[in-house]
């Protein structure tokens, strides 16, 4: 007898406690990664002044790339074993990698500890947390994922940049990393205790089905051990049943079927094209998504802002991201995740070209902070809507959501891998290392990603954009 998965609880104390656990896990994983601008400024001006922007960009690039590249493997582990057994060892790796970072003095050491080890650790803690929340909710999925993802934007992205920069000034780099390591370890421990899947993982179901099949074979064996008279009566009844039952002819396979044509038709189906458009959209968006997070503090200092004040541009951007993740996530439950995703991606690209670009010619402190807040709202919506869009494309099939979400992460990984180094090369190649070429490049790539998202939404829901998709 096959296991029938119950509907998601869609609320209740247990479901919302999972949201709290996911909030803490994302705060201490992807939230810590959001301090990339603070680290970029410190490495370039104090710790590693001999390295250019392209070289330093590889630190953040490797973190993001490993974060998403490990997605398929982590997702499959979550489907098979559940979230809690998967998160625990990666959380330990996160703490160890930060401890090693506090001892680093050379570029290659930082690259291995922060870029590789912490990137892998973040993948095994943050991605299961996102998937688990999606499995606990149905009609409130956008709101729940948005609230949980605030951990990486508001708390992680606001507290950690201020904490690290202030501790570096007063106690040095090593001490600041060790204190943040303590915070990461405690929050991850609480998150692990709260975060778990709502239904049995696949390995438990396989074991239960195996036990059930063994029991059925035993019952059949016992039923065959009957008296001869009973066997004759059973045999006569079965013969009568065979006479009364209809005869089923084998189905004739279709003639002259072109396998190549069939394969091509599958690839050109709206569902497949919708997946392709969505993955391409996430690829292009992740390519340029982190540009303001990485370069807004540097641009602020170059425009005359004090370094202390420039660090708060990240705080404002991440605070805006909180409102985008919660507010736009709640709106997506009403009008559809894909509809909101199209609006968000279009507005994000527009904010780069219409708002950030003019500030590179005529910078102002107020304008830079306003742009940071606006971009945070738009970009935060993109992050929180990825999981609901994946569920929509998967037709709400939650059993294999881990591997499905992980495969989408491949596009995000490639975008992250080529994005920051490409943007750093554009910036370093510009005259007087200005930011205009970087901003234009960022805006154009985001616009391409937005077009791909609109195409994916069209293939999923058709031309009627007022339909909830």
TrEMBL record:
Gene Ontology annotations for the cellular component aspect, listed alphabetically: membrane
Keywords for the protein's UniProt record, in alphabetical order: Membrane, Transmembrane, Transmembrane helix
UniProt region (Disordered), positions on chain: 207-261
Residue ranges crossing the lipid bilayer per the database entry: 15-35, 56-74, 86-104, 116-137, 143-164, 176-194, 272-296, 335-356, 368-391, 403-426, 438-458
Location(s) in or outside the cell: Membrane
Native source organism of the sequence: [Emmonsia] crescens
Membrane topology: Multi-pass membrane protein
Keyword Zinc appears in the UniProt entry: no
Protein name: Major facilitator superfamily (MFS) profile domain-containing protein
InterPro entries named among the record's database cross-references: MFS, MFS_trans_sf, Proton-linked_MCT
Compositionally skewed regions (Basic and acidic residues) per UniProt: 214-224
Stated family: Belongs to the major facilitator superfamily. Monocarboxylate porter (TC 2.A.1.13) family.
GO MF entries: transmembrane transporter activity
Organism superkingdom: Eukaryota
Principal subcellular localisation of the protein: membrane
